[in-house]
Amino acid sequence: MNVHPIKAFSDNYIWCMEEGTDAVLVDPGTASGVLDYLRKNNLQLHAILLTHAHEDHVGGVADIVAEYSDVTVYGPQETSAFTTHVIAEGDRFMLLGQSVDVLETAGHTNGHISYVIGDHLFCGDALFSAGCGRVFTGDYEAQYRALQKFKHLADHINVYAGHEYTETNLRFACDQQESTILSDALQEVRELRAKDQPTLPSTIGREKSINLFLQVDTLEDFIALRNARDCF
Q: Which CATH number covers residue 205?
């Protein structure tokens, strides 16, 4: 399975999974660019996966469905205005010949979910490379639990987040602690961004080494770190 990033807005990624001519989209915040990509590559869209209800992740659904009326749209309860199938943690279904497992990864929003599809994790705004999403709900415990779920996934799992925040996150990490691993990672990311190349996907193994939010041992430490990142 190939996974292609479609850039949107200033820093969003809309992920397009492809198997032959079949395609599945993740979090299409806009139809602009998406429809052109599908047509240019002669792809048949079968499904859309939504992680949460923020506009920059769902804003393109209506226009895309207008073009592909038989598409199945999966998402959590908070996206029910857009979905044909409301799903929750523990649900499993098949797409592109692979099993899709649903994880509850709340905190950024109350109903945020993530998807594990083979060796691929689509985590929306719950996990970023070297960071995690803002806890808009105020439920830091839910976000901390989500991070523990990510932490216990296999190291080889590829991480597809919803935004290109890696450089800023690594600058923050380097500000928090001196580490050759972090400084080397920041240099690598700066070189990629200078070429306008994405820093994603990452892997769970890489995130364990560079993501301070996956390294904290307690909820209290997570809250302190998240508050520091919010002020960075």
A: 3.60.15.10
